[in-house]
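can u do me a favor
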């Protein structure tokens, strides 16, 4: 139930680099969800979700259980209008597999989508496409260690469409077509999915599982399975797995959307009541408990992954009653972890032995509760980085935090909870459904945003968050059955395990060098000048109620007041000329703009001061680069909008130039640079945009030498004039007062002096000349992996928006045909894609491209197939059924 932990942006980015995309599937406590006043609970008629819990029930949900054991929950929700979201969760994942069945839960998920007792092979996809469902995004499934969840988001839903959809889904659960023919067709797809996994990340995950869960089944139960078991799978064996675990008492059906809940409940009952299990119900396997007597250290040598250390303390996973007091005590742990993480981030920002570090509390696969500390060293000296991180943690365990530190975390938690209350009316039904699935998965409940807030306020009023209690929690969260460490290094070291073991047990001196920023104020930001004057205000798009305001200094504002966006205001500030303003004839420090520009500060405020200024409010500072503008963006509230605008305007008028974010960005990119060659998709990400723009250095990832050469001085030399030049156009949409907003912009951006024009225009974008043979790039990863890309030039510019929409439809049809022939029929690629890219801010440079991960000996097949599909699209009219 605790709110999501917030780490500063760069730390989150760096830790994602460490583990994505193959991290252990952690099961975080769900955000407890939406509305009502407390009432007596734990009654005999409590819904199934709330048995044993005294949390406030969410009255928007209607829970039930069919006579055959199927549990269900239905709810009315109109976000987005017309959509209904369905989730069918089966309490069976890879941990239910026997050794000879590894990968069967996931394989069964694939087979279920092919056909069932209700639809022939491939027909469910076609039916849903006719309903507006996009394969892979609106219809999909996930298999984890403990569950398989089928997902459908049905746009423009009617009772008839939902009736047919639930019929299809129930058939997938009750009687999927597990035939030799279906298995022969789908097995290559699953093997392709396994083959396309990034090798370095998979090896990291395998090492992590083996070490952390030594002696437990989860260590050897990756959901993807093994080549041996998948190749050896028979239809009878997969059906036996289905019959054993796909039973009504193990199913939870969740339906939420823009429809009468009575209809939702009726349709669930209609389609899932006849389901009966086959044979005797099996007992859930013993997932084991963490135990001693296993290695405490492991290492891998993966140059494609940044040097890293992961230290995990494991404890038995226990089912607790999801009660008020349980959640209040867990909040103390959360505050302790937040304080430690903030101190670690402060240390990382100031330079030193580590680029990023953070601690996290998770429950994993009903197998362990654990505290994991992840460290990204600043270079190869992981021992020094781990020592310094342990010193920060040791200080948190020896000396109580100040009440001011605690109050800061509580203020941020409270602000997040209040914002959740404000935005609950516009929370998407699919998100609410996912929250309930997660709660079911970890045997917890959901409550209302108000209920969550009341639990939190009760803990505050009861003085749970004292320095002494947080100190005790800082000790407790690092206690457990065992502590184990995994290290990734870039060169073999015969003594590394000895070093890891020694580093874990070495005494460290507590680092009490805490930096705490107290109260800071927007009033201390540099002054902007006298408010500007509105020169013109007019409605430019009456149908959408969009106004345009022009100020005397040339700043323009697009404005749309929308009360439907309850509690949300979206701010987007476009300035300058974006990619058009960057050097087209040489490499530049532009690549560091996104990770370092906002972190470099505003006026005299650095990152720490900005965190203190904005942390307990809904104020953001995101930065991106568009084709024709640089962009500042944030989601805020009407109460925080004026200060949000002030912060953005001051960033342009008086930017800070702290050197540390630039140094940190350089070190972070270099630490993972080898990973850009480690797989076909990594090489595509690195080189494709540069190739498709004829080597123009504004596109693509810069060479290593460019990254190495950046300095704070060169960064400032590029970005300082870019921040100060070019037009400004602001877009503000959402739940705010239009007139108040016009005045707030006048007082901030309107107060800026007129800005000089962008220095020079960039040359036009050039699509590369036709090549008779494919351009070849190599990677350092698995020898059975390759990627193939083919692209056709299109156009660009806002005048061609209609053409771009047609190209999007064409790309969708092309994509569907490519998936059908390359994946479903040939079985040689798991997720081929076709996309249309149309740069609105440039007159050309657009393209239609097809991409697929395929075996190296199938690249020619991919190119021929893509050209054949393209030729067919040119030669023959598209049939109405396919077009619709």
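np, heres the sequence
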């Amino acid at each position: 139930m605790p709110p999501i932990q917030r780490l500063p942006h760069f730390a989150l980015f760096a830790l994602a680099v460490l583990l994505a995309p193959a991290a252990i599937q952690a099961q975080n406590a769900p955000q407890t969800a939406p509305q009502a006043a407390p009432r007596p609970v734990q009654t005999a008629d409590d819904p199934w979700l709330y048995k044993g819990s005294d949390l406030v029930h969410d009255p928007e949900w209607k829970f039930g259980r069919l006579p055959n054991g199927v549990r269900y929950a239905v709810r009315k929700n109109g976000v987005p209008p017309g959509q209904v979201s369905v989730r069918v969760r089966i309490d069976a994942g890879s941990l239910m597999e026997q050794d000879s069945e590894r990968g069967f839960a996931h394989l069964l998920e694939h087979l279920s989508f092919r056909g069932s007792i209700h639809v022939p092979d491939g027909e469910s996809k076609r039916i849903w496409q006719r309903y507006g469902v996009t394969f892979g995004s609106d219809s999909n499934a996930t298999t984890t260690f403990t569950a398989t969840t089928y997902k459908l988001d049905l746009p423009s839903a009617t009772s008839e469409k939902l009736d047919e959809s639930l019929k299809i889904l129930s058939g997938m659960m009750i009687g999927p077509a597990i035939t030799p023919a279906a298995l022969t067709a789908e097995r290559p797809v699953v093997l392709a999915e396994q083959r396309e996994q990034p090798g370095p990340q998979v090896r990291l995950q395998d090492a992590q599982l083996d070490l952390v869960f030594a002696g437990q089944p989860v260590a050897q139960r990756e959901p993807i399975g093994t080549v041996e078991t998948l190749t050896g799978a028979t239809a009878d064996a997969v059906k036996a797995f289905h019959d054993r675990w796909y039973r009504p008492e193990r199913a939870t059906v969740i339906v939420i959307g823009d429809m009468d809940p009575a209809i939702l409940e009726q349709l669930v009952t209609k389609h899932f009541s006849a389901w009966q299990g086959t044979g005797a119900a099996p007992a859930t396997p013993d997932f084991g408990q963490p135990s001693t007597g296993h290695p405490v250290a492991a290492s891998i040598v993966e140059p494609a992954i940044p040097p890293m250390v992961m230290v995990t303390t494991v404890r038995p996973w226990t089912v607790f009653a999801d009660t008020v007091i349980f959640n209040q005590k867990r909040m103390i742990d959360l505050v302790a972890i937040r304080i430690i993480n903030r101190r670690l981030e402060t240390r990382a920002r100031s330079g030193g032995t580590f680029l990023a570090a953070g601690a996290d509390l998770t429950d994993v696969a009903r197998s362990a509760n654990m505290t994991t500390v992840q460290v990204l060293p600043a270079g190869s000296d992981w021992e020094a980085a781990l020592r310094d991180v342990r010193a920060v943690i040791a200080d948190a365990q020896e000396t109580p935090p100040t009440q001011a530190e605690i109050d800061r975390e509580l203020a941020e938690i409270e602000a997040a909870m209040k914002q959740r209350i404000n935005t609950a009316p516009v929370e998407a039904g699919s998100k609410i459904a996912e929250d309930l699935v997660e709660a079911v998965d970890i045997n917890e409940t959901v409550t209302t945003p108000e209920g969550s807030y009341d639990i939190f306020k009760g803990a505050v009023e009861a003085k749970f968050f004292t320095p002494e209690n947080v100190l005790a929690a800082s000790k407790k969260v690092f206690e457990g059955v065992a502590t184990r460490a995994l290290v990734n290094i870039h060169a073999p070291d015969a003594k590394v395990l000895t070093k890891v073991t020694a580093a874990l047990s070495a005494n460290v001196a507590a680092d009490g060098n805490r930096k705490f920023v107290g109260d800071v104020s927007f009033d201390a930001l540099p002054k902007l000048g006298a408010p500007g004057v509105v020169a013109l205000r007019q409605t430019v798009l009456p149908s959408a109620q969009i106004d345009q305001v022009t100020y005397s200094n040339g700043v323009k504002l697009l404005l749309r007041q929308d009360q439907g966006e309850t509690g949300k205001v979206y701010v987007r500030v476009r300035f300058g000329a974006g990619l058009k303003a960057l050097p087209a004839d040489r490499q530049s420090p532009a690549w560091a703009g996104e990770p370092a520009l906002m972190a470099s500060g505003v006026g005299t405020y650095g990152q720490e001061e900005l965190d203190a200024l904005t942390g307990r409010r809904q104020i953001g500072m995101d930065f991106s680069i568009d084709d024709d503008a640089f962009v500042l963006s944030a989601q805020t509230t009407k109460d925080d909008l004026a200060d949000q605008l002030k912060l953005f305007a001051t960033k342009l008028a008086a930017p800070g130039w702290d050197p540390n974010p630039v140094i940190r960005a350089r070190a972070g990119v270099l630490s993972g640079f080898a990973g850009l060659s480690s797989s076909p998709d990594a090489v595509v990400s690195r080189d494709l945009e540069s190739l498709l723009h004829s080597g123009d250095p504004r596109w693509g990832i810069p060479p290593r030498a460019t990254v190495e050469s950046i300095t704070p001085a060169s960064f400032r030399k590029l970005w300082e004039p870019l921040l100060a030049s070019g037009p400004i156009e602001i877009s503000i949409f959402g739940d705010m007062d239009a007139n108040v907003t016009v005045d707030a912009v006048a007082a901030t951006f309107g107060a800026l002096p007129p800005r000089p024009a962008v220095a020079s225009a960039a040359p036009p974008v050039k699509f590369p000349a036709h090549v008779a043979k494919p351009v070849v790039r190599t990677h350092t990863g698995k020898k059975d992996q390759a990627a193939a890309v083919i692209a056709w030039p299109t156009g660009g510019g806002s005048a061609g928006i209609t053409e771009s929409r047609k190209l999007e439809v064409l790309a969708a049809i092309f994509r569907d045909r490519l998936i059908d022939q390359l994946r479903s029929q040939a079985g040689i690629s798991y997720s081929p894609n076709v996309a249309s890219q149309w740069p609105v801010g440039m007159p050309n440079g657009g393209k239609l491209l097809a991409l697929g991960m395929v075996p190296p000996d199938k690249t020619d097949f991919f190119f021929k197939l893509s050209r054949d599909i393209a030729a067919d699209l040119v030669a023959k009219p598209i049939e109405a059924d396919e077009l619709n």
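The first strand starts at residue 62 and ends at 65. hope that helps!!
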